[in-house]
Design brief:
Layout: H1 2-14, H2 37-54, E1 70-73, E2 76-79, E3 88-96, E4 102-113, E5 117-119, E6 126-129, E7 134-141, E8 149-157, E9 164-171, E10 178-179, E11 183-185, E12 195-203, E13 209-218, E14 222-225, E15 251-252, E16 257-264, E17 272-280, E18 287-294, E19 301-302, E20 306-313, E21 318-326, E22 333-342, E23 347-349, E24 364-366, E25 371-378, E26 385-394, E27 401-411, E28 421-424, E29 431-432, E30 437-439, E31 444-448, E32 461-468, E33 487-489, E34 494-503, E35 514-520, E36 526-533, E37 542-548, E38 560-561, E39 575-580, E40 589-594, E41 599-607, E42 618-626, E43 629-638, E44 643-652, E45 656-665
Parallel strand pairs: 2-9, 11-18, 20-27, 30-35
Antiparallel strand pairs: 1-3, 3-7, 4-6, 4-8, 5-7, 8-9, 10-12, 12-16, 13-15, 13-17, 14-16, 17-18, 19-21, 21-25, 22-24, 22-26, 23-25, 26-27, 28-29, 28-31, 31-33, 32-34, 34-35, 36-40, 36-42, 37-38, 37-41, 39-40, 41-44, 42-43, 44-45
């Protein structure tokens, strides 16, 4: 049938001089001797004519000019990682782009390593699709072993050109992924007094995280143990130190964490630092570091000890961004000067990038835990190693003059090109460095450096850095700053700046880093954001409250949005929700209120006793956004469980915020 369709039209075109009767039923079909080529040809022509005429009947068969055509999107499924015992589904769309009904059946998955794939339970055994009709089929991936999986989904069709259609199925082996806080800080601790902090090492991957070693390096005033939970600890409290061990864990299962207790026993009041190094089987981050600092209530300057330009092209100007952080939780850091004490004639500070009034002989003021950036340039003149020393003058009593080594190597090669782009996870639009990116709080950004290249043709490697972020945002590039395509969680509203530097196969660095500016803007009419600092090693749980004053008789009721009433329906056409409730770790928590009805509302914070370990001083921060713009910020130290901070009143539609700033025991009366 299909062969006949293919060959019929050309044959008739060669015999246009033949005239056939309209009543083909009267045409006699005689038997011809096999030796007669002409008569045999006429017989074929007459048979074709009969077939062509019969095609006009509406009998549902594929005609000589019409056929079904299968189109499958995508033609290959690449599954994300999931843990053993979990599953994920991916969609394929089957469409009939032909002119006749398409039938698809005999679905089957084959391959030597295909046992992890299956069709969803409600998948049809066969499809019958009219022209331009489509159907959706879900394929599930459920790994049972730590190994890569591959297979082929095969289906049979009546498409003459694709009687058997295949969709490739692939899934990488589940892998572990380590996650830790970036830094552990201690407030000013008197000499001879002891303090401790508990941090966690978490496996956010999909395979067991094997720990090779966990080592503490730095000042001897720090020590480290591993708490051992008994399961009988009061809610919100860490295990007793009497049960701690010095033996590091060997394996962390997916989704689980282990605790590390860092102990600080200062022998002086001077600034102290150390770091924890974790070596594991996380291929993307085999060596993870957690910085530790203490006695930082005085002005405290943190900066990289070395700025390495790597190899840089002669006759080009390479740039590097330097980040200076005030590691004090209380005091303001004042920078009085940034200059090269020894620059080898090739290094310079880009004066236009200096923060504050430094470029005009003034100073730069950096608030507690805040950071500033400036740019260094390097213009090598020949193929030699260049070295310089950058001096930063500040009011950090421990080191009023901070020295940073700056090195670079001139090269005749052409520098590679750093090209960063990003998109909000779950969307398809990519934004490059020339465009600003706007995202919502709590979103995750996917970063990508794959468009970077080297004109000399070598493979490039990547180095990402988070140059700026909102003050409260405890987030980091994950899983590694050297990944081609890492991610960044955006916990708070504000601006985040991510920078990409690439290196070619010879170690030559990109002349210009590629910077992405990400503005996190709350949606809706009203957005209230809570964060808090925990100056002790205990868990501290603060709860955000947002009250409809027009209808409420008291706080902690159905007219109050908080962790037990996250999505109330107030019946006034507004949309309200508490998007995140954090029970231990400084937030964020947020309430959003859209299409807000005219009236009065109130914001409060409660020091929740249920998951807090003791009465510990906690610095709370409230940001109120109106129409996506930061309208007002409030700060208050809360010291005791069951304290309630009545922050402010808010009037709609005029958008007037009135500070109350009242701290008392328990929920206040209205």
């Amino acid at each position: 049938m299909s062969a006949l369709k293919i060959h019929r039209v050309p044959l008739l075109r060669r015999l246009t001089d033949l005239t056939l009767p309209t009543d083909t039923s009267m045409i006699p079909i005689p038997r011809f001797p096999r030796s007669s080529g002409l008569t045999l040809l006429l017989s074929v022509v007459l048979s074709l004519a009969l077939f062509a005429c019969n095609d006009d009947q509406d009998d549902g068969n594929i005609t000589g000019t019409d056929s079904a055509t299968i189109s499958v999107t995508p033609s290959q499924l690449n599954f994300e990682q999931v843990a053993i015992g979990d599953s994920i589904a991916e969609l394929i769309v089957i469409e009939n782009t032909g002119e006749a009904t398409l039938t698809v059946d005999d679905f089957r998955i084959q391959g030597e390593n295909a046992s992890a794939f299956s069709l969803a339970e409600d998948s049809p055994s066969s499809l019958s699709l009219a022209p331009n009709e489509l159907a959706e089929i879900y394929v599930e991936y459920a790994p049972t072993a730590i190994e890569a999986s591959s297979g082929v989904l095969i289906m049979s069709t009546n498409d003459p050109g694709n009687e058997s259609f295949e969709v490739a199925l692939n899934a990488d082996a589940p892998t572990p992924q380590i996650f830790t806080p970036e830094i552990v800080t201690f407030a000013r601790t008197p000499e001879g007094s002891e303090d401790w902090r508990v941090t966690e090492i978490t496996n956010i991957g999909y395979a067991p995280l094997e720990i090779d070693s966990i080592e503490l390096d730095g000042h001897s005033d720090f020590s480290m143990t591993f708490p051992q939970p008994t399961g009988e600890e009061p809610e919100g409290q860490f295990p007793d130190r009497a049960n701690d061990t010095t033996v590091a864990p060997e394996v962390i299962l997916p989704g689980e964490s282990v605790m590390v207790r860092v102990i600080f026993l200062p022998t002086s009041s001077e600034f102290r630092t150390a770091e924890i190094t974790i070596e594991s089987n996380d291929a993307e981050s085999p060596r993870t570091k957690v910085l530790i600092s203490a006695n930082s209530d005085a002005p405290c300057l943190e900066v990289d000890e070395e700025i390495n330009f790597g190899q840089a092209s002669i006759d080009n100007v390479a740039r590097r961004t330097v980040t200076v952080t005030n590691c004090s939780a209380i005091a303001e850091l004042i920078i009085g000067g940034v200059e090269f004490e020894d620059d080898a004639g090739v290094f310079e500070v880009a004066e236009s990038s200096l923060p504050g009034n430094l470029s005009t002989g003034g100073v730069a003021n950096i608030g507690p835990r805040q950071s500033v950036n400036f740019v260094l340039t390097y213009a090598p003149l020949e193929e030699v190693l260049n070295e310089g020393v950058l001096k930063i003058t500040s009011n950090d009593a421990a080191r009023q003059n901070t020295y940073v080594d700056v090195v670079g190597q001139g090269s005749l090669l052409t520098c590679p090109n750093a090209r960063a782009r990003a998109r909000v996870q779950g969307t398809s639009r990519w934004f490059d460095a020339s465009e600003g990116i706007v995202a919502s709080p709590l979103a995750t950004i996917e970063l990508d450096g794959s468009l970077s290249d080297d004109p000399d043709g070598t493979q490039v490697t990547y180095e990402w850095s988070l140059r700026d972020k909102p003050l409260s945002a405890q987030t980091q590039i994950s899983p590694s700053i050297t990944s081609e395509s890492p991610t960044l969680w955006l916990p708070y509203a504000g601006r985040y700046v991510v920078e990409l530097t690439v290196y070619d196969g010879a170690g030559l660095t990109s002349c210009e880093p590629s910077a992405l500016f990400i503005d996190v803007v709350p949606g809706g009419d009203i957005w209230v954001e809570l964060a808090w600092e925990m100056p002790t090693g205990a868990r501290t749980d603060l709860d955000l409250h947002y009250l409809n004053v027009e209808n409420a008789d008291s706080w902690n009721t159905s007219w109050d949005i908080y962790f037990s009433n996250r999505n109330p329906t107030w019946g006034d056409g507004s949309e309200t929700s508490l998007d995140r409730d954090d029970t231990c770790c400084g937030g964020p928590e947020n309430v959003n209120h859209d299409e807000a009805a005219p009236g009065d509302y109130a914001v409060g914070v409660y020091y929740y006793p249920g998951t807090s370990a003791g009465d510990n001083p906690t610095d709370a921060l409230i940001n109120v956004y109106l129409g996506g713009t930061l309208a007002q910020t409030f700060e208050r130290r809360m010291s005791n469980q069951r304290e309630f901070w009545y922050v402010a009143d808010l009037s709609i539609p005029d958008g007037v915020i009135t500070a109350v700033d009242d701290l008392g025991n328990g929920f206040p009366s209205l």
